[in-house]
Amino acid sequence: MLELRNLHKTFNPGTVNAKKALDGLNLTLHDGDFVTVIGGNGAGKSTMLNAICGTFAVDEGQILLDGKDITRLPEHKRAQYLGRVFQDPMMGTAATMQIEENLALAARRGKRRTLRPGITRAERENYREQLKILDLGLENRLTAKVGLLSGGQRQALTLLMATLRQPKLLLLDEHTAALDPKTAAKVLEATERIVTRSNLTTLMITHNMRDAITYGNRLIMMYDGHIVVDVSGEEKKHLTVEHLLGLFSQASGSTEVNDKMVLS
């Protein structure tokens, strides 16, 4: 479903502030893979997601999505294939609009607009059923303004909106990092339900090693712009934080691990 071939990206090249963010990055995701991504600050995690989305052009390499080369495809054209949830819960929703209006916008992304009434009865019932999977009681608050919701509720709603159109690839950029532990756990549980229900190919960046081990069928760790640890299957099921740190030290030749990565 996704193939990254020898990606390179340097910011501010030729200056004293030059930063090599991606250094020969290679990654292949198969249809239905749920991959968690960890790494310290500056490892290249968010740069990888931004490269996939087309936020900036890579210096070298290829990006293929479902067999199609999208390396030079503009960001707005890639958006029809991708779903993305950012770290900030306020970024993915329109605060002054109702819950059902936000969902309607997401459901009609890329479709032709008409002058028919905004939301039909059938659509409203569908939104109510979709909201039940979040287990937050939002199905009974369809007409509530999104700005009245908590950060966790807004992030869960953003997650649902990002997946309504069944994207080819779902990108989660530390989408629980700004939430308190209890709320983050609920959003992660909803994430797993949605991804599993729709068999979505997913890349989830997290700063939390325990979450990276718990969720998904595969785990990768990035360091200096490339992947140094790639674990899946039975090996991932039996991973511990201590074992993962050992794999990182062995693969990278470094014991430097960001403190945020080991928070439970």
Specify Rg, calculated over alpha carbons.
19 Å
Task: Give the biggest sheet.
Answer: 6 strands, mixed
Q: Can you give the helix content as a percent range? A: 25-40%
The end-to-end span amounts to 31 Å
What's the CATH H-level superfamily name of the domain at 2-81 and 167-262?
A: P-loop containing nucleotide triphosphate hydrolases
Q: Tell me the number of strands.
A: 10
The ordered H/E elements are: EEEHEEHEHHHEHEHEEHH
- Average residue pLDDT: 88
| CATH hierarchy, class of the domain at 2-81 and 167-262 | Alpha Beta
Number of helices: 9
Structural class by helix and strand composition? alpha/beta
Spans of at least 5 consecutive residues with low confidence: none
The name CATH uses for the topology of the domain at 2-81 and 167-262 is Rossmann fold
Written description of the protein model:
By secondary structure, the protein is α/β, with parallel strands linked by helices. The chain has a domain at 2-81 and 167-262: P-loop containing nucleotide triphosphate hydrolases (Rossmann fold). It has nine helices and ten strands. The protein has helices spanning 45-53, 75-78, 99-107, 121-132, 151-163, 181-198, 209-214, 233-237, 241-252; strands at 2-11, 19-29, 34-38, 60-65, 68-69, 82-85, 169-173, 202-205, 218-223, 226-232. The strands form two sheets. Strands 6-7-8-3-9-10 form a six-stranded mixed beta sheet, sandwiched between helices. A hairpin with a 7-residue loop joins β1 (2-11) and β2 (19-29). α3 (99-107) runs parallel beside α5 (151-163). The protein starts with a strand and ends in a 12-residue tail after the last helix.
